[in-house]
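retry 2 of 3: previous attempt timed out while embedding alpha-D-glucopyranuronic acid. Reduced batch size to 1 and resubmitted. Inputs unchanged:
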Amino acid sequence: SGPVVYQAEDATISQGAAESNHDGYTGTGFVNYDNVTGSYVEWTVNAPVAGPVTLELRYANGTTVNRPMAIAVNGGTAVNRDFNATGNWDTWQTSTLTVNLTQGANKIRATATTANGGPNVDRISIG
Ligand code: GCU
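retry 2 succeeded.
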């Protein structure tokens, strides 16, 4: 079995909105982060066993400016990631990192760290 997909539009959204006015998303849409520091999407991810997994985040950034976010698991130390320009809002790229999950339910939060907010976020895949 491949990675498990968790759509952003189905996750908990703080200061953002599920939208579908650009092309190329999976599921029913994507999350448009409000253009503020601290806007976030938080997924609840189930892990059958504790340990490291690959987290792939799919995003679009139609501006020319990086939209960095801090990725935190269960409120722990965040890892900062850049989400640079993808060319336009219909063009999606993926960013991959390794995160450590505990057995059972885990909260994975991607928080915008600049006043521009985050990129548009389609989904995460865990596998
Ligand atoms: C545009 C675009 C949105 C995007 C926003 C932004 O309004 O249509 O999808 O989220 O710019 O800059 O964050």
